[in-house]
Amino acid sequence: MRSKVYILYTGGTFGMKSTEEGLIPSSWQEIIEYMPAIRNQTYFNYFSNIDFTFETLEPIVDSSDITPETWKRIANSIADHYDTHDGFIVLHGTDTLAYSASALSYIFENLQKPVVLTGAQLPIFHPRTDGIVNLSNAIYIAGYKSFNLARIPEVSICFNDDLLRGNRSVKTSTNDFEGFSSPNYDNLAHMEQNIAINENLLILNRETELKLLTAFSDSVVNVTVFPGYNPKPLLDLVNSDKLSGIVLKTFGAGNLPSNSQWNELIATCERHNTIILATTQCPNGKIELGQYAASNVLQSTAVVDGYDITSEAALTKLMWVIGNYPFQERRAILAKNLRGEISTHN
């Protein structure tokens, strides 16, 4: 069975090449010169049943320059081709790949087709590049019909033979080929000699009409508590009505220092309708408010329990919820497991 796969190159290490004018993006024809399984389909029939559409996001964006506007452009590009393609691949720089995967997972409601983000630690033109394997694996997931594989209707990250839920992923290495991991959730698939998909983990949407919500608020901060941290500057921001939301990265299972300034901050957030999404600094596990007395201050109407959400998924979720929903709805939506980003039963 034939598959039609849309590939969007957004920038990043994967496809950059060096010229006299500096680093510039490569064309699809240049990229496939390094991928004989695509280039020579007469001899290699692995991808012969796939029709590719390749586009470059103009202008391309270095991953450290990614913004919510970029997420919107990526989402709209996919939506424009959604009805005519079976799967989608986004080639993206690795530094903010987990942020973009999380953001896109929230943008797409009722997603029925695979959206696979991937990139590379070394350019595809480098003799030791990991880009060839990463893109090849992503093609298998996006072009699932051609390989009799299960459909994975999620935003995922494909990297170094691992397929991870996008909003469960974190970048864990700047240079290892195994650059991403999923601390609190199993792989959606293991892509070694045989592709083993964990179908029991997949989210299958009942509604079929794709909807996009693309607004993100910038009136949020990501705060990591540390020994001796003084919340006074944060309190000043809340009092000035410059903050709509705070991702608070607490100690352990949700603990904070026992001083009155934290009580004052929480009370002020309640008065100013500023939401706190409480998370843990630990890469594994979850917060459990009330487990220790040091977390009792967070048992407030201003605070939402982040459970086992990653830092990237927490920040993008808070930005997205504030951007798209009125205050009266935000707390309930933040607490809900929307796209598999947290482990709850709701």
Strands of the biggest beta sheet: in what spatial order? 4-1-5-7-8-9-12-13
Mean pLDDT: 91
In terms of per-residue confidence, which ranges show pLDDT below 50 for 5 or more consecutive residues?
Answer: none
**Which class of secondary structure composition applies to the elements?**
alpha/beta
Total number of beta strands? 18
**Approximately how much helix is present in the residues?**
25-40%
Radius of gyration: 21 Å
Beginning-to-end CA distance, first to last residue: 37 Å
| Biggest beta sheet summary | 8 strands, mixed
Our count of helices gives 9
The ordered H/E elements are EEEHHEHEHEEHEEEEEEEEHEHEEHH
Query: What percent of residues are in strands?
Result: 15-25%
Bulk shape: elongated
